[in-house]
Amino acid sequence: IIKKWSIPCPLTLNYVEKGFQSAYALPTMAFSFLCHTSILPIYCELQSPSKKRMQNVTNTAIALSFLIYFISALFGYLTFYDKVESELLKGYSKYLSHDVVVMTVKLCILFAVLLTVPLIHFPARKAVTMMFFSNFPFSWIRHFLITLALNIIIVLLAIYVPDIRNVFGVVGASTSTCLIFIFPGLFYLKLSREDFLSWKKLGAFVLLIFGILVGNFSLALIIFDWINK
């Protein structure tokens, strides 16, 4: 918000983006609100955990996240219009490379990532262990090796992937759409004993179809965008 008024932008406002760039929008939003992998660890850390308390935590977290995302996206776009970078701080760093506010935001993001990675890393390591080593007794050596391997993969992706938008787009179109739209709808259809024509089951079916269409269509457009480049 502060830097919107510090950097004059001579470009015209573009309300509609045409082309393959729009394919990244919905997958990126799905990736941004994906918190399912952290639900169980956070639930276990609650004092007197219950479904109602977890729902309140989830609602508060998503509402705060939406507010922060909305403000950042809105004023980031109003600063650079259609020349906005996929990584917002890149644009500010070009014009305000030594600005105190920009450097402070970078430090805050650094600390946020340092605190977030362990939460996401725990279910990833747990999933690898359950998939490949569920029949073996616990081993600290294997535990550390899986942790090391996951961290190496993360660092290599961070170093060699040229644009973070590619990661958000592909993961959002594949994994995020499955966890947010496809799997919940599929699980409800499988487990519910209601009639298929009931409103809840029809809603679950619509959610399932929507996830399949959005995920596949977005992923196809993203791949076409890579080919064209």
From TrEMBL:
Keyword Ligase present in the record's keywords: the answer is no
Family label = Belongs to the amino acid/polyamine transporter 2 family.
The UniProt entry, under Pfam families, shows: Aa_trans
* GO cellular component terms given for this protein: plasma membrane
Q: Which gene encodes it?
A: SLC38A6
Please list the residue ranges annotated as the Amino acid transporter transmembrane domain.
20-222
Protein name, entry field: Solute carrier family 38 member 6
- GO biological process assignments: amino acid transport
Organism the protein comes from: Homo sapiens (Human)
Where is this protein primarily located?
A: membrane
**Intracellular or extracellular location(s):** Cell membrane
List, alphabetically, the InterPro entries matched: AA_transpt_TM
| Taxon lineage | Eukaryota, Metazoa, Chordata, Craniata, Vertebrata
| Transmembrane intervals | 56-80, 100-120, 140-161, 167-189, 201-224
Keywords, comma-separated and alphabetical? Amino-acid transport, Cell membrane, Disulfide bond, Membrane, Transmembrane, Transmembrane helix, Transport
